[in-house]
Amino acid sequence: MANSLKDKATGPQPEVTLDDDRDPIVVVDGLHIVYRVYGGGGGKGNAASALMRVVKREGRPQMKEVHAVKGVSFVAYRGDAIGVIGTNGSGKSTLLKAIAGLLPPARGAVYTAGQPSLLGVNAALMKDLTGSRNIILGCLAMGMTPEETREKYDEIVKFADLKPGFIDYPMNTYSSGMGARLRFAIAAARTHDVLLIDEALATGDAKFKRRSKAKIDELRKDAGAVFLVAHNLDVIEETCNRVIWLDDGRMRMDGDPDTVLGAYTEATGK
């Protein structure tokens, strides 16, 4: 699969350079992501009156384009843990969704060896169900067998470190941090080709962050690559061997954490 990635990524006008001594697992080649959103048609009123205007073709909303990712190119290799940083609206989460295959490129392409997982099971978790039921559904959604799910159940509960008894409460009673910890614990219960984590490590105490870092190190050894979006630069510095800095949808820097984080801090004052 890695060879096919190399073949696909080298078209007539390649934008990426591959290291033949390493095993590529994700190739992002001249990627552009454009959202098409509808704005108001200039009228006022509630949702019902807005609907009536659409039905009557009066004051119809105008479509606008938001160019969220602009010509980003890079190669992620097996064993990489890549932090993705940038200010709000810089395109970080959009990039992860594109790698996961959830957003189609307007131009360019994303090639992956294996199946990317955006925190593994976001779509499978149901707030009206208990944490316990969500563990079972989440593991099954990731392709684990019922036997594998039973074997991993206690490990997931322990890793999530919820308040006593909360594993049997509906997830709509959880704080945002508890929900994020449980999602990460479920996602980390199996080996992923490419694991994409969006802010999950920013919502825990120091003990949880240490456990998460150890788990990511384990995933890097046993699987492919890990991508991590976090506003907490300490988490990025401690967890990642490489950092990509996005600025207004464009790649500003791609390099080792000390260099990129230092430049980012100097530029933004954060």
UniProtKB/TrEMBL annotation:
Sections of the chain in a coiled coil: none
Region listing for Disordered, in residue ranges: 1-21
SMART domains to which the protein is assigned, alphabetical: AAA
Pfam family, one: ABC_tran
PANTHER family recorded: TEICHOIC ACIDS EXPORT ATP-BINDING PROTEIN TAGH
UniProt record similarity statement: Belongs to the ABC transporter superfamily.
Domain of life: Bacteria
Keyword Transport: yes
Identification of the protein by name: ABC transporter ATP-binding protein
Alphabetical keyword list: ATP-binding, Nucleotide-binding, Transport
Molecular function terms, GO-annotated: ATP binding
Presence of keyword DNA-binding: no
Residues annotated as domain ABC transporter: 49-267
